Amino acid sequence: MISKTPKPPYYAVIFSSIRTEGDNGYSETANKMIELAKLQTGFLGAESAKNELGITISYWNNLEAIRKWKHNSEHTIARENGRSLWYKSFKVRIAKVENDYEFVT
So where are the chain's domains? Predict the structure, then answer.
């Protein structure tokens, strides 16, 4: 599903990852993190594609909302598990969305 976002500007957190073998509780936690993020002030939506390379993009109103999400206690535990159990490598990018457009049939 493509997220419906407001008129720019807003922010995107782009999380790219290479997973380790096995689930080890990853799927359950990933789903829980999306549900938890939806409850955070400033959260606008998220999109995810998982294959050999996983990419999750979350959209936020502002940098303060992103900072608060990063420091959410449950998200902190999930990040720690990511480093120790789920990811061979990952990269996080934060970008300001200045423009967007779409095609819909």
Answer: 10-97
Reported as a pLDDT band with limits 50, 70 and 90, residue 1 is confident
Amino acid at 101: Y
> Which tens digits make up the pLDDT trace of 80-100?
999 999 999 999 999 999 999
DSSP symbols for 15-64:
EEEEEPSS-TTHHHHHHHHHHHHHTSTTEEEEEEEESSSEEEEEEES-HH
Q: Cis peptide leading into 6, omega within 30 of 0?
A: no
Average pLDDT of the segment spanning 41-53: 96
d(CA 3, CA 57): 10
Query: What's phi and psi for 101, nearest 5 deg?
Result: -155, 165
Specify the residue for token string 């999750």: 56
pLDDT tens per residue across span 48-77: 999 999 999 999 999 999 999 999 999 999
CATH class of the domain at 10-97: alpha beta
